[in-house]
């Protein structure tokens, strides 16, 4: 196990070093090599770099928060904070999600660490789906992007709150308190720290970052390929109906893999083409699960659980946005 971890870290360091070398010295590459590339490959490269550069600061934030939790948060503190009643435990989970200023890239390692520390699975999942939406930064970006229709900003927050609680309840009814992380529960070491806590925090953050880095690169590459070659005109043709609109926009949100702090500006560009409920489906679904986030989750959680999580989020978001359209819009 230790040798495998060292090998993963070695390849992580190599990948990161190559990435930064290309980033710093990329202008030395002969221009003929670039101009001879097809426009599609150039677009794919641009999208890939934009996704990676946009995600890395938030991934770093997430792994440092995760490392701080590992070093300083005791299991007993979590158990005192979370009610023993599984239903009542959903509400403090939403509160935690609302105060975490992180996007979907950063929240995965944080939730994994909280579960390792003893947080119930369904509580961690509520934090995972609510934090990328229910935080002040996302609200302000949505408020600014939809200044002509402020209903979208408020509805996004309200629907995310409702959907998060429903998803948490659904996950508990299906999985209870079962262990769904890839690593066996018996292998999780609950450490008592007596040394240099700053060094321990940096060590945990480094391990987490290089473990996640390769999955981030894979997810960004797949998302850039799909964005480059996806026929958006076809989406517009099939997404105009009451039932089809939210489904199409949810699919678009999944494959675009946008950061939740910036997705509102992309969504606003569809205002004249899709219904408000479809745009809300895009804004609620994307931060809860997307292609990049799925790959990150698959690095930590069991594959069957990840599949059931995606199905649950998809069904709940689609149903709630349709009901919102019928009741309110």
From TrEMBL:
Keyword vocabulary terms for this entry: Cell membrane, Membrane, Transmembrane, Transmembrane helix
Name assigned to this protein: Permease
Location in or out of the cell: Cell membrane
Similarity annotation: Belongs to the UPF0718 family.
Pfam families, sorted: ArsP_1
Transmembrane segment boundaries: 12-35, 47-69, 89-111, 123-146, 152-172, 215-232, 238-257, 264-285, 305-328
Membrane topology per record: Multi-pass membrane protein
Predominant location category: membrane
Record bears the keyword Transmembrane helix: yes
């Amino acid at each position: 196990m230790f040798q495998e971890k060292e090998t993963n870290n070695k390849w992580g360091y190599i990948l990161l070093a190559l990435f930064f070398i290309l980033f710093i010295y990329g202008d030395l590459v002969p221009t003929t090599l670039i101009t001879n590339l097809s426009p599609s490959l150039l677009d794919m490269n641009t999208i890939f770099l934009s996704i990676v550069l946009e995600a890395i600061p938030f991934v770093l934030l997430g792994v440092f928060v995760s490392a701080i939790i590992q070093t300083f948060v005791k299991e007993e503190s979590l158990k005192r904070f979370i009610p023993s009643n599984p239903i009542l435990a959903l509400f403090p989970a939403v509160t935690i999600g609302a105060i975490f200023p992180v996007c979907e890239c950063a929240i995965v390692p944080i939730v994994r660490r909280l579960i390792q520390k003893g947080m119930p699975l369904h509580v961690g999942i509520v934090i995972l789906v609510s934090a990328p939406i229910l935080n002040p930064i996302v609200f302000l970006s949505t408020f600014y992007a939809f200044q002509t229709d402020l209903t979208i900003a408020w509805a996004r927050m309200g629907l995310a709150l409702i959907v998060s609680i429903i998803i948490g309840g659904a996950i508990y009814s299906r999985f209870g308190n079962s262990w769904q992380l890839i690593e066996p529960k018996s292998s999780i070491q609950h450490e008592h720290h007596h040394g240099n806590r700053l060094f321990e925090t940096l060590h945990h953050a480094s391990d987490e970052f290089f473990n996640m880095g390769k999955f981030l690169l894979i997810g960004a590459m797949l998302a850039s390929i799909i964005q480059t070659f996806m026929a958006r005109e076809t989406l517009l043709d099939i997404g105009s109906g009451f039932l089809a609109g939210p489904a199409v926009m949810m699919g678009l949100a999944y494959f675009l893999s946008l950061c939740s702090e910036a997705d509102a500006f992309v969504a606003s560009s569809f205002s004249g083409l899709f219904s408000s409920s479809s745009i809300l489906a895009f804004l609620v679904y994307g931060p809860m699960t997307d292609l990049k986030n799925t790959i990150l989750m698959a690095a930590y959680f069991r594959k069957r659980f990840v599949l059931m999580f995606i199905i649950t989020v998809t069904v709940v978001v689609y149903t709630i946005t349709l009901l919102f359209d019928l009741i309110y819009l």
